[in-house]
Structure formats: structure tokens, C-alpha cells
Amino acid sequence: MRVTELRFAQNIGSHFKALWLIQGKKRVSDTGAAAILRAKGVPVVHPQEVLSPAYDRPFEKVDLLPRLEPVKELEEKQTLCHVFTNKFSPVMGVSQVQLITNSVVRSGLPETVLERAVENTAEEDEKVKEAILHAYLLDSKQIKLTRVLDVINRPGWIYKREYGIPVARRHKTLTYQLLLLLDHLVPGAAERQLVEDTITTANFNHSDRLIQTKHRAAFILSSPNPLPQLLDNEEVKSLEEETMPDIYPLSPFINCRAIGNYSLEDSYGVGSGHLHPHTIFIHHNQSRMPHSEEHFNGMTLLYAFSHAAAYAKQIAKIENGNLEKPVVVQVVHMHKQHFHMGVFQLNTLNLTGLSKNIFWTQPWEPLFGKCCFQAAKPVLEGYNPKVFSLLKGLHAQC
Amino acid sequence: MIKIRPVAAPSLLRFIKLEQVCTRPCHHAVAPNEYTDVPKYPPIVDMSRRAKKKRLKTAWHDKITKLPTVEQKLMELNLPKYYGYWSGHLIDVCPKLLGLNFIQYATRTHVVNGLPEEYYSDVKNEAERLTTAVTDKVEHLIHLNYNCPLSRRSFGPGRASERHSTQNFLLGLHRLMASTVDSTVQHIKESVVDMQPRVEAFWILGGLPPDEMLRKTRKNYEPSKELENDLIDRTMQGVSTPRLGVRVTDGLPEVVSRDDPLATSAFVPDNKLDPRAFGFWPGEKKEHSQLWLHSREFITKFVEEYVTELTYPLVQQSAITDGQRWNFSVYQLNTCTLHSDLATNNPHNNILWLGEEQVLFENGVKGLNAEVLTALISMYLKKGIERDNPTPHLGSYKHLADHPASEEYREMFQSHLHDLFSGRGRHFMKPEMYLWEKIYKKDFNTRFFEARRRFFENHYKQKDPGQRRLDEYSPIYIPKAKRKDRRVKYKPMLDSEELYKYH
Hints:
Distance between the termini of chain A: 103 Å
Order of helices and strands of chain B: HHEHEHHEEHEEEHEEEEHHHEE
Strand content of chain B: 5-15%
Structural class of chain A: alpha+beta
Oligomer: heterodimer
Low-confidence stretches of chain A: none
GO cellular component, one term (chain A): ribosome
Low-confidence stretches of chain B: 258-307
InterPro entries (chain A): mtLSU_mL37 (IPR052482)
Helix content of chain B: 25-40%
Radius of gyration of chain B: 31 Å
Shape of chain B: globular
Number of domains of chain B: 2
Organism (chain A): Homarus americanus
Keywords (chain A): Ribonucleoprotein, Ribosomal protein
GO biological process, one term (chain B): translation
């Protein structure tokens, strides 16, 4: 039997091509002939002085793609700053945010809201149910939704990838429709203005650190008259004796690392001096909420504080941290069917001082239990009329 | 009918008296009188290829008309094409060069300059009164949106930020209109507002010239040689995304009863998608910064009846704006059956009344044009009328939810339909002829020795993928653990009449 040699023949072709490429780029080496000839007095000319290309080959530089402006990278600063964005999740929930914002929490919405939160008529309930169905089911928008995973009950099971209405769109449609319904029920609501998709930034000094809140609101409802103060000045003074929760050994800035690339610019969503914040609607647009109710509630307080403070810094008169006229702001924080409502009164911007801010809230309420198609029929189960009546109560404040 | 008494044994036959006389053997009922005075000839049917094809088409159209629910009609419309229709796309944000003529032809629209004054005459006074009430609020809105610094999400360079600021303005404006107009009318209170709804329409457009490939195919195939230059139908898909849509239950009254005709030239388009239909839209607001308004207007709603004729005209009002400049229009849909020769020989045509471009405010809120507001308010005030038979081509249960079939079938059918409309491709793509196959098997057949198994090769099982129907799939197997009846191994197949059917 003849033993054939191992050839690695698969490389021959590419080896051949590589050699062509390499040897095609001839480098002219200096043989020394030119120097010798010159020394002997023979004129030596560079070939390019005599030869010229057969035809003109101009190369035109064309910008095929529009030149994008380079993203301005924020320079690293010496002082680090804790930037609280929408993605922040307070580990200790409401207690941590109380320490950040120097606030006191009351369980239960204020009396002024609860007395205006009247029961819904059957007609109103019908309209709200219709609004929910339209926002959650009957919209024909079909976009690839995020994957559904049920690690606990069906680990490893791959669910069918659904196409449907994204969470952000559901929230927006529902909120806008509910606002339209509320406007019919409250006189003078036409004076209020609505701004969509705002960014509010504000900087503060907390103990020896710099903090910045940078929050996006889905809607800011502003009114020409500011909301009336809920606690008058004596009651505000009495808040100074209240104790703040203690989360030792955790610091209030846990889960928020200080960063160096931030920009110190204050901005409030609605930059008009004639409009005062009435209600802020925040939508939590992730399809899965990675944290619990406590964290969600804590974020509501933070959103309320950031908007009230940003507005106050622009408009209100501040004397060594304390506001002459406290700013009241209402906030509605939504995630799918959960509604968390709160009323916040900003008394001071001094986050380590004695004077405290106050936040009234109650546990979140689900608007409905289940909203889906069952045998091709749109079905809404577990509708909770309390949410709409609370919204009415909030909307009626002026 | 043969009546014979049962006999015990053949040998006993002659001893048994048959009760009835057995007449001549015949296998069907004997007519009492086979002859009539007047001859009843069967209808003379044109047996030419052209006529046969037309009969098939009409039969399919009739089938769709008879289906009782919207979903079933949509499914039946999609049944002939497993891989979807190769449609011409008319998208409102993609203007076609010199496309106005074609779009007018494709939608059979006659354009009238100027809004119909008499249509709004009944609401004009009310509108003017409300305008005065609303002017200063609108001024505040404009001031907020266009003069004040609003800190908003940045949407990047280009028109995106402009569109979002217009969206914000329109949202505020609608809120204002709804609350002002509310005191006088009920229908706005009960309206549903959609933000950037997905509006798609599908229709079949006839009267288009055949393309080169089709003509060659026809010429080379003996039976269809004479049909070489016959005009063809093409499916059209219209896509539009208005910024805001206001929907109410009753459709608007007609502006004029069906009117004069229009026809222009036609060219052949491109692309493919699956169809979708939509409901009533009395008032809409769109956003634009370009000036090819006409084309935009025609991407309207064509309801359930694509192949069936409308019984009453549908009217839609819309406004195209970028906040400052406004264009109002009213569209009356009289016909949406534009297939075969109905594209040119239709007794009805659709009408678009297009108003002039008006400016709401100059730079800096000075000079608010009240006329624009009046026109807008009168659009809101226009009330819809109740039709006594709004959906004559639907059964009593209009939607699949009330279909008599079982729950399981309804659910499967609906999810199948939603999957169709989601725009996701099929799991396995349409079979394609690879380039090497085109060269070595089709154009220059050097592989004659190979077994013919591909779809473009002639063999006993050859199937044209373009002709594959939605209901041509292998039945879905049910594993034993999931079976309800041990013997029923497969799920029933898709069927437009009974949703799912065992064949």
C-alpha cells in the first residue's frame, strides 16, 4: 500500500492568492545604480518625471451617509453626584426615599381628596371599562412584545412570542382617555394644560453629597392656579418633631452609585411661569416589574419630590432651603393595572434640616383583575371602581 | 320504487304472490309528467376561458359576501394565499413621484376644491359661537407649545421632534375641543380617541395592464393565448398612521348622493403584505409638513366589504396639520369595489372635498385665525346619523365572539387571524429557486439525470407555492395525552365558514 503524503491541499488556493497580493506590491529597492551613474556624470531621471498615467483618474470623495454629530460626552467631574433616574429602585422602599427627600409619610390620602372622591355612576363605570378595553385589547397595533417567562411555575418552557400592544402605549391610551373623561366631570378643567413626555432635572445638596433627580413623566397636568397648601405653617412647624426612619447600616443612597459624568442643569418639564403643576402621571413601562410594591411606592414619593422641587427652584421664593409658600403636587404612578396615588407638599429644599416635607399616600389599587380575549370575546374581570373615584378626587382639586 | 316482499327462498318464488307490480327498474323518482308545455332550457353558459374565470371570481366574491362575521370575511379573503398577497403599498408617509393620478385612480376619487359649505350649514352658527368661547384657551395652548421652553425627551435630529411637538399640541387641542363642544353634543362625550392608531386598508384594484412576465406566460400557454393583453387585478394595501383619531358609533351623513365619474391613467406598483380592515372614523387629525396632501387623503378606511358594494356612503372628516398650517377635508366613500372592470366602469365614485391651506397663527401667537377654529369645531359638532341597517352583509352576530361555533374554535381562529395580521413571516419561507438551479436546471438543463422534486420541476406531486392556500397544511397532530377522544388524532382544518372542520 502506498502511503500518500499529507498535503493540506485546502490551503493551496489561498496561499497562491496571498502570494499574488504580496508580490504584486513591488517595492523598488535602491540598487545603488543611480548613485554610481550620477557620479560618472550620466543624467539620471526619476521615472515619474517622464512617464504619466494613460488617463486621468480623479477620485471624488462622497459622503454617502450623513455625518452624524458626535454624541457630546459629558466630562468627568471631580465631585461625584448621585443621579436618581427612572430606573432607580430604592432597596428599603419608602423609608429610604423618606431619608433622601426629608419627608414624612401619612397613610391615607388627604381629606380634601377623599371627600371629592365620590362614587361612580353606572355610566362612568361603563365608560372607564370601555376605555380599558380599548387601551388593552382592542387596539390593532401589533409590535413584538417582550418574552414571557414563568420561571417558577413552568421553568424552561418557551412561550409563544406574542405580537400586540406594548405596555407604554397601553398606559398612554388609557391615561389620555381617563383624563378626557375626568375633564367632563370637573368644571374648569379646560384651563389646565397637558404636556406629554417631559424630563425634569434638579440638583440638591444632601448632607455632604450632591444628588440629582432626572425623571421622565408621561404627562404633566398643569393648571393656572397652584394647588392650595394642605398644611398651614403651624402644622408644618409641628412636623419638625417627627422622627425619620432609620435604615442603618444602609445609607439613603444605597443602590445609586455616585457618578462623575453628569451635567448640572435644572429643568422642569413645563417652563412657563403661568402654569403650576397639578398632577404628574408617571408610567412604569417595563412589562415585568423587577421589584415589589414597597419599592414602587418609594419611587412615587421620589417622583413627586423631584417635580415639586424642580418647579420650586424655578418659580418659588426660597429662603435658606425653606419655601415661603409650600408647593403641593399630586402624583399618579401606573404600572399595567396598578395605580399608586399620592399628594406631596414640599415645604423645604433643605434635605438634612429640621423642616420636613409631607407625603400622603395609600397602598396601590388595581384598576382591574384580568383583561383579555376569551373565546374571541373581550373580557374584563375584577374591575375596581375605587380607582376612578380617587382619580376624580385628585382631579377635582384646584 | 320497487316493492318486493321478502321471500324465504328463491325456490318458493312462484308460490308467492307479489303484492305490488314491480315496474321497470329505475333508480330515481319518476316524475308524474316528464313533459312541459314551454321548454325549460338550462342557461346558456359562456364556456370561454375568460368567462369561466370570471364566474370563479364572482363565486368567490359571493362566498365572502355571505359570510356572517368580519373575522370570517377577513380570513376568507386571505385564504387563497398562504404566503400572502403581493400588493402595491400606498403609505401616507411615502409620497410617490407624480403619484397623485394613480392614487386617484386606485381609490376612484374625484377631487373637489373647497369644503362643502351646505354640509356644515346646520352647525355653523353653533361653531361660531363656541369659537369665541375657545379662542383665548387656544391662545394659551399655542403659547405653551410653541413659545415656552418645554423640557421634553429629545427625539433626535430631524422631523421626529417636530412631529412629537405637534402631537402634544393636538392632544391638548382635542382635550380643549372635547370639553368645549361637550355641552352641546352627546357623541363627543361617548367618543373614543386613539393616539396614532394603525389604519390599514386592503382592496383589489382592477383595470391594470399586465406585466411582461404575465404576458409572456399567457402567450406561451395555448389556452390563454387570446387573453394575453387582458387587464388584471392587483391587490392594494393602504397604510396610514394619523396622529389622533376620534371614533363614534354612528357614521356621518352623506354629503351628496352618489355622483359623477372620474378616471385617469394607471401604473403598476410593487411589494407585499397581509391585509387588515378598520371601522368608522368620523374625525381625524393627521400631521404633515409636506405638501402632497391629496395622496394622503385617499388612504382612508375601506370597511368589511371589499368585494361587495357599499349600501350607503361612508363619510370621514380629517385635518392635516403641523400645528400652524391646517388643511381640512371631507371624504365620501361611495364605492370600494374596484376589482376587474369596476375600476373604470363603476357607476359610483368617491369624492374628496379639500379645503385650502389655512394658517392658525403667525409666529408668536399674534393673529389667531378664528376661521380655522370654526371649521374644526364644526367638524366636531357634525352629528352622525343612525342607519337602520348599518351592516347588511353581516349576520346578526357581527363579531366572532358571538359565533355559534365552540369556544375553542373561536379562540384558535382569532389567534390565527391575529398572527396573520402581525406581519410576522411564515415559519418556513416561501420556497425559492436558487441561482444555481435557475442556471443548471431551468435555463440550461445540465442535470437531466436528477430526480425532479422541486416545485418548479414537472413531477406528479408538483405544487406551485404561490397557489398554496391557507388551509393547505398538514393536519396538526394531537399527542395521546392531550386527546379528548382517543381516536381523534388530528386537529380540524381551517375553514372560513365553520371556523374549523374535519375533512
